[in-house]
Design brief:
197 residues, alpha/beta, 6 helices, disordered N terminus, disordered C terminus
């Protein structure tokens, strides 16, 4: 039964692009009585210069700072208004000198205040996580801190962590990272290893 929930969860994440289209049209995403979660990817590293022609495939009518709590609250409320249950935010690890860490902490608090949920897409290939020891430490910190927040996404009581670029590390690397970072398999890892089948 749990694998069925995970498959539904993965399918819901794939609907993120649908969310963007429907949010523009201001139509609800799901039909009444839907089962499963609807999640959307959320990127929290923008500033007004991010929306210049050539940097993104669209021009935002209101360029913003991702650090702005008011903007983040508006995004959460807009998402809820079209049937999204939570955001899955890209996360570069616990180093507070980069935006994804403090912005994710802020997102969790805003999500909690708005009956919303949030999880991370762990980005293992970034300048703040140069090796597997750093990746392990980041995941341990995530599980000890953010994953304990009441707004963090859980399935059957277990926190859910999504992974980007799982192909960038070997299956043996992922096995070692999982064994060290989450030896009791307390979390659900989505896109674990190198084989997406």
């Amino acid at each position: 039964m749990r694998s069925g929930k995970i498959v539904k969860l993965i399918g819901a994440v794939v609907t993120a692009l649908l969310f963007m289209e429907l949010a523009v049209q201001n139509e609800p995403v799901g039909a009444q009585g839907r089962t499963g979660l609807v999640l959307a990817h959320y990127y929290a590293w923008f500033d007004p210069s991010s929306f210049n022609n050539g940097k993104t495939p669209f021009t935002n009518p209101s360029p913003y700072f991702s650090t702005d709590a008011g903007v983040m609250t508006t995004h959460v409320q807009q998402a809820k208004g079209v049937g999204i249950d939570g955001f899955v935010q890209s996360w570069f690890g616990p180093n507070a000198s980069q935006q994804t860490e403090p912005n994710f902490a802020q997102l969790l608090n805003i999500a909690s205040a708005n009956g919303f949920t949030a999880a991370v897409t762990f980005e293992p290939i970034n300048p703040f996580l140069p090796d597997n020891n750093a990746r392990i430490g980041a995941l341990q910190t995530l599980l000890a801190t953010h994953a304990q927040h009441p707004a963090y996404l859980r399935i059957d009581g277990r926190p859910v962590i999504f992974f980007w670029a799982s192909w960038a590390l070997s299956v043996d690397d992922w096995r070692a990272i999982r064994a060290a970072a989450d030896p009791g398999n307390t979390a659900i890892w989505i896109a674990e290893g190198g084989n997406a089948d």
